């Protein structure tokens, strides 16, 4: 809940100045739920700048999870 309030504050503060992109990564449930190529497609479809998509891809690069 605290994170949501922080994001709302950031969005209000910067809404007049420039675009604001926010990514939530829930490490408990993210893996194996959405194929990565679908995530990249969704980001591109929503016109997220390439530099941010590349940054997010770097987070997932060489990541392995075990359950």
Walk me through the structure.
51% of the residues lie in helices and 0% in strands. It is mostly helical. The chain has one domain (2-60). It comes from Zea mays (Maize). This is Reverse transcriptase domain-containing protein.
Précis, in short:
The protein is mainly alpha-helical and 67 residues long.
Overall pLDDT confidence? 78
Give the class from helix and strand content and strand pairing.
mainly alpha
The secondary-structure element order is: HHH
Stretches where pLDDT falls below 50 for ≥5 residues?
none
What are its keywords?
67 residues; mainly alpha; 3 helices
Helices, strands, pairings?
Blueprint: H1 2-14, H2 36-45, H3 50-60
Protein name: Reverse transcriptase domain-containing protein
């Amino acid at each position: 809940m605290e994170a949501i309030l922080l994001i709302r504050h950031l969005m209000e503060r910067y809404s007049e100045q420039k675009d604001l992109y926010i990514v939530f990564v829930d490490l408990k449930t993210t893996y194996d739920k959405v194929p990565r190529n679908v995530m990249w497609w969704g980001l591109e479809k929503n016109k997220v700048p390439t530099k941010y998509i590349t940054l997010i891809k770097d987070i997932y690069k060489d990541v392995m999870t075990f359950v």
